[in-house]
């Protein structure tokens, strides 16, 4: 029997996905291999199929109890003998399952890394283990976003087995540095890496908006869809959960403060679509194989791009179009800083986490294609996706070279030894004590941008950093340094452009044809309801419709004066007029 026959006979697929055949061939040849595939890329088949072709037992190391049970149940449904050993079993059940593995009654045995290092080694050493599959392998690397100390002992434990099993390590998120670390620790010689691109996902960053209102508006125009809303703290999870409940949204929640029984019930309600929307901390999601998640929204910024990409990967596993949205707020970055500050990590690991958080902040501020930015972060080249909020941004690009030069010059005159906040304070002529302390009020760049707010200058600094003209060096308190590209701008050799909001017209001629059509509809609706026309929509709202020309209900929510209630009442009727004009 060959892998192709097993693929069809046991799993019902005609062809392998990209990378699967290569991983399986390496494994069957006895080569230790690292498989890096995106969420939904079919990593589990890469060790499940070889397990049926090799003698002995395949040991699968998985960090999550729920994932173990789901995979074992799925394998048994496919007629493949598999079982697991974890903390939910008593001693008698564990011994029985070891006996099943020893006698060949099961082909795959799932265990957690903690179980390997808690007195079970002697039993495992008696088993004919030919293949060891390490899932979520990024957990073994201190450079990874989900490092787990229990993974560090894996190499020693595997080496102490009487036989020398083949190793296959699998992960959905690994930077080149993390991949190198995994391969070195596990003595892996082969790497199979498929494209990280998820073309069915539409990436979006939302800034400077009321995130609560955005959530309510989004759910209004996307009813009956299943999705996950992530927050960083239990408190925020419960607040958003109550907000959506009050809005009559079918929602549940998940965080570590709930009882085990409540977490399981809520998870089942979500999985079985009884409550299609889940608000959760990052404790939720690993091992959740729900294919119809149509959106993943981060209400708060996560700590790293690795964590973000893994979490958004839970959307659109069925390949259908799905939204992934980051609601970026500066305050949430400070929350992540607090988490790092309060952690028990040593100084070196804290420094790494600060750098990852800086990269996450730069992602939120870039005007590069969002999916391309992520691919570049993971060491891949790729074309623009044409589908993210940056690719679809139709705002005009404006020359901001002079403003950029002011910022770069100020950074230079401050000897590249200070951070964003102080640079913005100097440029906006702040009189805070630190500016006076370092005599920065005497610099020629002091007050060069005093007609702007510190917030807007800080945002411009973030843009220059995300665009590669500045770099944020250091950990907890990063300082700004000028890159080679930034130096070229400072010397007048390069021009800087930034997409800026187009100013909507403040008024339109009263005889404007479209405006008159909208006003006529407004008058008709007002007469039917016995209210003044401005109660329906103000003139400014009608003018904004003319200027923005929304083409969908989602677009309509961006028009000033249109909230969810008015959208439901009047959105379709006004949109019909706008679409008629657009078709002419």
From TrEMBL:
Keyword DNA-binding: yes
A Pfam family per the record: RecQ_Zn_bind
Helicase C-terminal domain: residues covered: 210-361
Coiled-coil residue windows: none
GO biological process, one term: SOS response
Keyword DNA-binding: yes
Transmembrane segment boundaries: none
Named cofactor requirement(s): Mg(2+); Zn(2+)
PANTHER family referenced in this protein's UniProt entry, alphabetically: ATP-DEPENDENT DNA HELICASE Q1, DNA HELICASE RECQ FAMILY MEMBER
Sequence similarity: Belongs to the helicase family. RecQ subfamily.
Name of the featured protein: DNA helicase RecQ
Organism of provenance: Paucilactobacillus wasatchensis
């Amino acid at each position: 029997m060959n892998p192709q026959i097993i693929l069809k006979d046991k799993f019902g697929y005609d062809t392998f996905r990209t990378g699967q055949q290569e991983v399986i061939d390496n494994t069957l040849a006895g080569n230790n291999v690292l498989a890096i595939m995106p969420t939904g890329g079919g990593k589990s088949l890469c060790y499940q199929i070889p397990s049926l072709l090799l003698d002995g037992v395949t040991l699968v190391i998985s960090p999550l109890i729920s994932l173990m049970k789901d995979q074992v149940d799925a394998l048994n449904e496919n007629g493949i003998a598999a079982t697991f050993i974890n903390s939910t079993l008593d001693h008698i059940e564990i011994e029985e399952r070891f006996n099943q593995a020893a006698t060949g009654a099961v082909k795959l045995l799932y265990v957690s890394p903690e179980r390997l290092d808690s007195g079970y080694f002697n039993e495992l050493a008696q088993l004919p283990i030919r293949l060891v599959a390490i899932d979520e392998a990024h957990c073994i690397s201190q450079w990874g976003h989900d490092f787990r100390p229990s993974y560090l002992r894996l190499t020693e434990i595997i080496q102490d087995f009487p036989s020398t099993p083949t190793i296959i390590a699998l992960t959905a998120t690994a930077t080149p540095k993390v991949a190198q670390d995994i391969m070195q620790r596990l003595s892996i010689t082969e790497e199979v890496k498929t494209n990280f691109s998820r073309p069915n996902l539409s990436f979006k960053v939302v800034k400077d908006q009321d995130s609560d209102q955005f959530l309510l508006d989004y759910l209004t125009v996307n009813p009956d869809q299943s999705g996950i809303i992530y927050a960083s703290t239990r408190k925020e999870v419960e607040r958003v959960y109550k907000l959506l409940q009050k809005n009559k949204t079918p929602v549940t929640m998940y965080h570590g403060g709930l009882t085990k029984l409540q977490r399981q019930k809520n998870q089942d309600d979500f999985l079985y679509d009884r409550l299609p929307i889940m608000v959760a901390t990052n404790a939720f999601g690993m091992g959740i194989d729900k294919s119809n998640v149509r959106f993943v929204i981060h209400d708060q910024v996560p700590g790293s791009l690795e964590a973000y990409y893994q979490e958004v990967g839970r959307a659109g596993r069925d390949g259908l179009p799905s939204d992934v949205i980051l609601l970026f707020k500066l305050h949430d970055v400070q929350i992540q800083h607090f988490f790092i500050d309060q952690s028990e990590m040593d100084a070196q690991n804290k420094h790494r986490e600060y750098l990852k958080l800086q990269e996450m902040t730069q992602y939120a501020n870039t005007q590069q294609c969002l999916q391309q930015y992520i691919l570049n972060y993971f060491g891949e080249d790729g074309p623009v996706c044409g589908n993210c909020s940056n690719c679809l941004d139709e705002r005009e690009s404006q020359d901001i070279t002079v403003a950029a030069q002011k910022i770069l010059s100020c950074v230079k005159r401050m000897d590249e030894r200070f951070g964003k906040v102080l640079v913005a304070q100097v440029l906006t002529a702040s009189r805070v004590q630190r500016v006076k302390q370092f005599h920065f009020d005497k610099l020629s760049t002091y007050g060069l941008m005093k007609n702007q707010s510190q917030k807007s200058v800080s945002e411009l600094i973030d843009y220059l950093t995300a665009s590669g003209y500045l770099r944020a060096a250091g950990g907890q308190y990063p300082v700004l340094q000028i890159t080679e590209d930034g130096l070229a701008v400072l010397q007048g050799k390069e021009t800087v452009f930034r997409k800026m909001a187009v100013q909507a017209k403040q008024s339109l001629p009263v005889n404007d044809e479209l405006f008159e059509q909208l006003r006529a509809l407004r008058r008709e609706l007002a007469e039917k309801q016995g209210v003044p026309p401005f109660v329906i929509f103000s003139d400014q709202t009608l003018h904004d419709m003319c200027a923005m020309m929304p083409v969908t209900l989602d677009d309509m929510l961006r028009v000033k004066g249109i909230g969810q209630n008015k959208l439901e009442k009047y959105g379709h009727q006004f949109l019909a007029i706008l679409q008629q004009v657009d078709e002419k």
